[in-house]
Amino acid sequence: MDGKRVVAVLPAYNAALTLQRTVDDIPPGIVDEILLVDDASQDDTVRLARRLGLRTYAHDHNTGYGGNQKTCYREALRLGGDIVVMLHPDYQYSPRLLPAMAGMISSDEFDVVLGSRILGVGALAGGMPLYKYVANRGLTLIENLLVGHKLSEYHTGYRAFSRRVLESLPLEQNSDDFVFDNQMLCQAIYAGFRIGEISCPTRYFAEASSIRFGRAVRYGFGVISTGLAFRLARWGLASSRIFPPGLERAASGSSAEG
Fold it and tell me: Which long-range contacts (CB under 8 A, 24 or more apart) does 181-184 make?
């Protein structure tokens, strides 16, 4: 795409029932490499991925959702990715939007692109439970206030990044759990990267992955904690390993501290 190498990364855990549908819906001619990182699945995810011809990296033990993504991005950079698109292999998000998301970065208009379930009517129409929708909207409102940004949601699992974003953010300092997504996005905002959104239809069905209530509550508290850490670091009132000094200049390429 415009001379830039596009790598799609699929963080997988027990995705054998939905993997082929996900891969089949990725439009041809856009992605240079599809990398699946398996987080010690207990089904046939790895065997199916290899049969489909995907480059496959298998963890020998479960590292968590965030730990899986750390491997995804590290390996995508090693493969020479200029644009890296993270797509869940559970077929909840539409793979057909991948060219549009990659194109928004290739055009050099954005550094990060989010596939938003909230823009338009995609979330509830696609079967998102009402309580999840309400929680999503509430947490997004709180976070927009804390970080001083305006996004339709912070919780989508469909994201595209430029190489510079992945090389600039201190991802290894983030959680290995689900709040990794939120920490990474807040880091990108803190660093000053340009973030765009595109409306994405979503599907909720039995085989699609979903976190349980207890972990969802823990995620919610993690989101608020991340927002507070962002605000305190921005004000210079508290240090944070995920918002280190100098990160606010990452998008400009300057190491000077403000």
Answer: 181/65, 181/66, 181/69, 181/154, 181/155, 181/157, 182/143, 182/154, 182/155, 182/219, 182/222, 182/223, 182/226, 183/226, 183/242, 184/69
